[in-house]
Amino acid sequence: xxxxTPRARAWWWSIxxxxxxxxxxxxxxxxxxxxxxxxxxxSEEAGWLRDYLRIDTSNPPGREHRAAAFLGDILHRERIPTxxxxxxxxxxxxxxxxxxxxxxxxxxxxxxxxMDVVPAGPGWSxxxxxxxxxxxxxxxxxxxxxxSLGIAHLAALIDLKRRGAALTRDLVFVAVADxxxxxxxxxxxxxxxxxDRFSAAWxxxxxxxxxxxxxxxxxxxxxxxAQKRPLWLRATAHGRGGHGSGFNPRxxxxxxxxxxxxxxxxxxEFRVTAPARDFLGALAPRYTGRLRRIFSDLDRYIKxxxxxxxxxxxxxxxxxxxxxxxxxxxxxxxxxxxAQASALIDIRMLPDTDAExxxxxxxxxxxxxxxxxxxxxxxxxxxxxxxxxxYRAIVxxxxxxxxxxxxxxxxxxxxxxxxxxxxxxxxxxxxxxxAGEGTGVHSADEAxxxxxxxxxxxxxxxxxxxxxxx
Length: 470
Prior knowledge:
The protein is 35% helix and 22% strand. By secondary structure, the protein is an alpha+beta fold.
């Protein structure tokens, strides 16, 4: 056996220590980038989105004026004129227009998104208005709904300005307030107060579109052309108030609870509408087995009391007016009987539901002692046509990645204000989100992949360019 002398051992350890130092120094040169940890520089558009996400526009109260000022500053640097349009209550929306060169071939293309977001709520892994970049994703409330779409619209507008493109029609960019609570202080107000700016629109691109993916692979794109209609109500009961220790079986809260029990016990009535038939008929070839069979023959499987075979809840909602009691308001103290108690009720109606008949049914179930106030509603409107050039432009761009289907959504958006006036509106998301990436919408940890965001921005630029540029 070879025995090492102290000098030999010292020489050996000096080599080891030198090697460690060398690795450390080299590691500091190449840094975390060589290990895949250094964040790549953000694109200009991703930088805009990061800064946009840092503006808290939770609605209520909204405070959209700060977001409008942020977007306006970007447009002013590009020498694109803007207007800030404020409601009497101080809710601010932003309007910008790039004019056509010469006589327009028709009305403008409108790009619209909402600046307000739902409150962040609990459960976040990061601060919800941090705009943090973590593992290749931008985090923050509004990352998907719908500040990313707004930045994609903004980028498409600025891209055409920088190119000096000759536009065949005007391009309008509208960032609105108040969508999340019904739009009466946003697009609903704008379109009533400034009809000349919207009534002649050629088409509208708005939120509401989506993508279906398996892992990272896009199976199909959904372009929203129809949606349910809102019927938001406040039900209020009155009664004798007093101390919680008192005998008071007819208190406002008890009357409200009894009425809500009758209301929520009403049987649901299912039926197939034309938008559901078109949407699921287009999806049928994308499925196999039971769902393909059901989607191909809806009238056979959708009965008045519900589907005769199991379906995903997402699709079941397409056939029924849904009713949810979402907010209860009464006493703020356990030992106080309030003289008034209220409930907020979120009803989503099928496209052809008779709203007055449904409202009468609700009132009857709640009873005469409960007052009902309509907060938000909407008349029927036709689906946006699939043979419109604005829809075909989407298909031309996205169809090379995966099939495009016209979708019918159970929520509602500002698109309804346009469809009610006969203006085609299309819910379009250009972002190829991976499966599960949209789960943060209206919940904790909303985030978007920077790579998918950047790719989507470029898609939006090409779609808009094909619609308005020579």
